[in-house]
Design goal:
Shape: elongated
Number of strands: 9
Number of domains: 2
Helix content: 40-55%
Strand content: 5-15%
Largest sheet: 4 strands, mixed
Radius of gyration: 24 Å
Number of helices: 15
Distance between the termini: 61 Å
Structural class: alpha/beta
């Protein structure tokens, strides 16, 4: 039996050496990928707050036995009455998911908004669009439609195009899993690809560099690399540079230089189409645009865990200062400055920026 998809999900579900997957399937295919995985089912569900207890595969609706002939667990959620008891009247499944949401970022894979398990679950959770730590769900179809299917249920949809089937989704998840298990090799590949400069890369490749610069491990790799990146990557880190006003070439014959084309990330909302009568109109920076130099989720989480120590020592624990120190070491450590003739919009003075 081909289990590539299950192996990809197991790779994505691993963090700090612990694999955690919650499934509503009864089969034992995850366990077939790795027989050493711990497996549990209701009513003996693990405590999501315990790293020792919560690990391996959790079969929320129960699981079959090794012969696939009988139920292995006392709870086996099949009928409407079973769903009602698990999610509404007794609510043991709802309580478990609530605990997950309070500690982890949850991603639903393989469900639609109208699936009965999902309807029961979301009714029990009673999420709202503004709920903190909202779960995510992959949803096929056109973007606005896909988002609307989940938004009122308090879930943030990740739309994908399924006009050619589900291969693009699994190709993406496969690449994501490669990043998850790649470690040093993945970082080295990203740095090698980034060496020619951001204008030579696709938006998703620049996004990989931005991701690398947003986490402590990536900053450490940058500081240790023998071939420093050009300082023009600082422009990519700053959304004010990516959304800078297009620049008119000195000759006036070539089309305007658009910084977004050379610096934009795949996660950046595209700027409004240029007005032919006012190509150089000032652009607003979207609130959701990634700012590598700004605190991110990792910074806030790490800062919260180290707050007592920082108050005692009077120091600041964040990847941002580390990023700046690493960049100085990487970009300027060999003496002198590294610059690049990359135009950025005319009104900024970042390293590596020249103006026509």
């Amino acid at each position: 039996m081909k289990l590539d998809a299950h192996r990809v999900l197991l790779d994505l579900a691993a963090a700090r050496g612990i694999t955690r997957v919650v499934t509503t399937n009864f089969d034992l295919l995850f366990e077939a990928c790795d027989p050493a995985l711990h497996s549990s089912g209701p009513p003996s569900l693990p405590d999501p707050y315990s790293d020792r207890d919560f690990r391996g595969v959790v079969h929320l609706h129960g699981r079959v036995d090794a012969t696939y002939r009988h139920a292995h667990d006392d709870e086996f959620v099949i009928s409407s009455a079973d769903f009602g008891r698990a999610y509404l009247s007794v609510g043991w499944a709802t309580h478990f998911i609530q605990q997950l949401l309070s500690r982890f970022q949850v991603l639903f894979i393989g469900y639609t908004a109208d699936d009965p398990p999902m309807q029961y679950l979301l009714e029990g959770l009673n999420l709202r669009a503004g709920t903190r730590n909202r779960p995510y769900a992959f949803q096929s179809g056109e973007q606005s439609t896909a988002i609307a299917l989940w938004e009122h249920r308090g879930v943030k949809a990740i739309p994908f195009d399924n006009s050619d089937g589900f291969s693009p989704l699994w190709d993406t998840l496969g690449a994501w899993a490669e990043r998850a298990r790649g470690g040093r090799t993945w970082f080295e590949t990203v740095l090698t690809r980034a060496a020619p400069g951001p204008e030579h890369l696709a938006p998703h490749e620049r996004g990989q560099v931005a991701h690398m610069l947003s986490i402590g491990e990536g900053v450490g790799r940058l500081a240790a690399t023998p071939e420093p990146l050009g300082a023009e990557w600082l422009l990519v880190a700053d959304p004010a540079q990516r959304y800078a006003t297009p620049v008119r070439p000195p000759s006036g014959e070539s089309p305007p230089f658009d910084p977004f084309d050379a610096l934009g990330l795949d996660s950046d909302p595209p700027p409004d189409p240029a007005d032919p009568e006012d190509v150089f109109h000032h652009r607003e920076i979207p609130a959701e645009a990634t700012g590598v130099l700004q605190p991110n989720t990792f910074d806030h989480e790490y800062g919260a865990r180290t707050a007592p120590a920082r108050r005692c020592a009077g120091t600041r624990a964040s990847s941002m200062p580390n990023f700046r120190r690493a960049w100085r070491k990487s970009a300027y450590g060999s003496g002198g400055s590294r610059t690049s003739p990359l135009h950025c919009g005319g009104q900024h003075t970042s390293p590596g920026c020249t103006h026509p």
